[in-house]
Amino acid sequence: MSSFKHVLVTGGAGYVGHVLVPQLLANDYAVTVYDTLWFGTNFAPHPRLKIVKGDIRDTKTLAEAVKGCDAVIHLACISNDTSFALDEKLSTSINRDAFTPMLKVFRDAGIKRLINASTSSVYGVSDSPEVYEDNPKVPLTLYNRFKWECEEQLMAFNDPGFVWVTIRPATVCGYSPRCRLDLSVNILTNFAVNKGKITVFGGTQKRPNLHILDMVNAYKMLLALPDEKIDRKTFNCGFQNLSIMEIAQLAKRVVEEQIPEKGTIDIEVTSSDDLRSYQINSDKIRRELGFAPQFTIEDAVRDMVKAFQQGLLPRSFDDSNYFNVKKLQELKVS
Ligand SMILES: NC(=O)c1ccc[n+]([C@@H]2O[C@H](COP(=O)([O-])OP(=O)(O)OC[C@H]3O[C@@H](n4cnc5c(N)ncnc54)[C@H](O)[C@@H]3O)[C@@H](O)[C@H]2O)c1
Question: Is residue 320 pLDDT above 70, yes or no?
Fold first, then answer.
């Protein structure tokens, strides 16, 4: 257990936040979720949970919300390439321009630890599985470039007592009460369960993946470790680097096993001119912090299949809450 008592989670009502926040509460933290609530909330009421509807660009509301907190996990952003591209001006204002003003609010409020969610796609493409933290950053999209620029902005904060750490997660997978069905493992499992057929574009592209429960374990660990272990450091955080075809075959096998009445799940391969591979090496977080993922991608597929069977993910191709692009188009955010 860490010395922190009250954690503010920006973007805490998103996909990762909906698994993270209940676990922080279970670990005796008080939690303030600070979020625009684009996807609503699906949290059970809790005496130590406060939900503030607010935008990270609104520093006045943010400064009020952070009073009394001692640590921050920063997740809020427009969180994939396609939703970023819908309105680049809006996305830039949130994903890049709001970052330093937000950090100043946290520093001035006496926050002692900030955990910054970046992404393992800051490196761009590489067929090498050995992409380490200090590899060159060749981000291919603005979403990825601004994640890297935020890391650089954070490096300018040297105030004593304001400890920060950046984590670069792989693509997350598995069930959350605010589930995203626009992430590779979850997409392919949705098709296998609900269409009986998976279409794979190309298929040879490798992607690093991480089970959502391991993602959450990593954030809990970064809160609990002593300052000197993490201060001003950056860590990749991924588990299995699998090709899209390997993920499709996994989804096919699990669905055929768990729901035999579905019969054979077909995999259709169509050509793609985007065969870029992203892979990362996550030895540093294991070596320096002792972090070892405990859940496989197969576990994530099994959890998703179970959630579909239990009716927890209704209208899985139509409800915009599962799809960041659809939701932002619907909300007409500015
Ligand atoms: N999910 C992944 O596979 C993955 C992989 C690598 C990194 N990450 C990073 O982890 C973080 C969380 O990802 P996620 O999948 O939970 O994303 P998400 O889109 O589900 O959640 C983001 C949340 O931020 C909120 N938000 C957006 N703009 C805001 C603003 N201006 N002010 C306040 N709240 C705002 C949204 O309402 C949403 O609830 C993001 O920073 C993302 O870039 C995610």
Answer: yes
**How do residues 210-236 score in pLDDT, each as one tens digit?**
999 999 999 999 999 999 999 999 999
Q: Ligand 1 atom closest to Cα of 54?
A: 33
Is the pTM higher than 0.90?
Answer: yes
Q: How many CB atoms lie within 10 A of CB 66?
A: 23
By C-alpha distance, which of 180, 184, 234, 218 is closest to 294? 218
The residue extents of the domains of the chain are 6-331
Beta strands 241-243 and 206-211 are antiparallel
Q: How confident is the model at residue 271 (pLDDT cuts 50, 70, 90)?
A: confident
| Integer Rg of the chain from CA | 19
pLDDT at 181 over 70: yes
pLDDT at 1 over 60: no
- CA-nearest of 192, 200, 198, 213 to 309 is 192
Q: Angle at CA 120, nearest 5°, toward 190 and 114?
A: 110
For ligand 1, say whether the CB of 57 is within 6 Å of any of its atoms: yes
Assess whether pLDDT exceeds 80 at residue 2. Answer: no
Tokens of 261: 């009445």
Which backbone phi and psi does 54 adopt, to 5 degrees?
Answer: -160, 160
Question: Residue 277 — pLDDT band, cuts 50, 70, 90?
Answer: confident
**Is the CB of 185 inside a 6 Å radius of any atom of ligand 1?**
no
CATH class of 6-331: alpha beta
Angle at 92 between CA 90 and CA 94, to 5 degrees: 75
- In the DSSP assignment, the letter for residue 43 is P
Ligand 1 within 6 A of 146 CB?
no
Q: For ligand 1, atom 9, name the residue with the nearest CA.
A: 117
Which ligand 1 atom lies nearest to the CA of residue 171?
Answer: 3
